[in-house]
Write a structure and sequence with these properties.
With 465 residues, the protein is α/β, with parallel strands linked by helices. It is 40% helix and 15% strand. The chain has a single domain, classed as TIM Barrel, CATH 3.20.20.80. Bound molecules: beta-D-fucopyranose (FCB).
Length: 465
Amino acid sequence: MIRRRTFLAASAALPFLAARARAQMAVPKLPADFVWGASTSCFQIEGAVREGGRADSIWDVFAREPGRIADGTNADVAADHYHRYPEDVDLLAAGHFRAYRFSTAWPRIVPEGTGPVNPAGLDFYDRLVDQLLEKGVQPWACLYHWDLPQALQQRGGWHNRDIAGWFADYAQATVGRLGDRVKHWAMLNEPSVHAIFGHAVGNHAPGLTGWPSYLKAQHHQNLAQGTAIAALRAQKPDLVLGTVFSLQPVLPSTDKPEDAAAAQRFDAAWNTNNLDPLFKGIYPAAYADQFAPLIKGDDMARIKVAVDFLGVNYYGRAHVVNDPDSVLAQAGWGPQPPGTRTTAMGWPIEPQGLVEVMRRLRDEYANPPAFIMENGACFDDPPPRNGVVDDPERAAFIRQHIIACRAAVDEGCALRGYFVWSLLDNFEWAEGLRRRFGIVHVDFATLKRTPKESYRFLAEVMKPG
Ligand code: FCB
């Protein structure tokens, strides 16, 4: 059944386009209990980095180093969500979002990483959660989206296996304050991506390099994830607990055997070094020997814990080639198939890959309840004109991926929801403020919000009834 509600909420402004746009933007219906949401992360939107007792995170320090951020910006103000959250919650409510995934900042809540909890840091999330509930939006919290307290980096950060306990303590303190109202908790955001870019390639905070560094960061994140889930289950058995992985089908760019082998290594580094430990209690063959020296005692049993859901961030497939000089699995990004369209990040637009990822979870990982927890696109949007930001490519991108969600559901995949990345234009890590993923435009000089046409499109799709 096709739902024919559409896009042109702005059709009043463009009535002559309405009929064509309506046909082009139709989306299939998803189950009535399908969760529609939007995602953000604290460091990328909050700003207020020196307010309310917050201490530096590794990203504050990294962004201060000359040359690290492509456009020379930082996240000191970002979208100023810390002060403007009521307006942002109103945007969620007006857009018919049923759920909102945000992350909590470890350096706000436990500024030194371990030790005293900062009540003022928790107060902010307390206000945010109350505001969301008051407006009928379900809060989903993620405990770690890459902003480690700098104080912990000085103690080895993700290289120090004690971090499993540090993270569990912070998680328990956060849940202790918010867990009466926030039921859905994700532990980590994209641990493999954090391990790869932050700890092997070095173009993300904390800027560490080398493959041994990757292995430690990956294993200790897996361990922290399992340790925190067990601790939170014991603390509050009614919570809905999960974690968030970036998953992408990995394909060799050519039919050369060495590229096929590179694709297998890349797949392990990106996908299965997360999936196999969590769901099977093992590391994939490609790296099992390399992880072995890091595995102590019952680590693997602590990592293989039952999750209530898996968050999946999906942006596109990875097309790779063999590259012996590459620190990332001795593989590099290779040519995409001819004719592949890309976003402004150069990422391929491949909605079918979402279905492939979901099939893999169904067939190889016992079909865990899953939510697309991030999906979206960066395009060079025009600036607002008369209160309108016309971003047809983003709206089309989102629509194609909703169609893919429906295909996955039809194939029996346990896909239960879709969260768009991102509610707001924000600080896109090493790219800075120049890369816009929001469905709401943010003018970083005035901080004014302007919903884009993609927001209006999604609002129509999600409108109940
Ligand atoms: C994901 C990150 C998110 C954002 C998007 C574009 O890998 O989780 O913070 O940067 O990419």
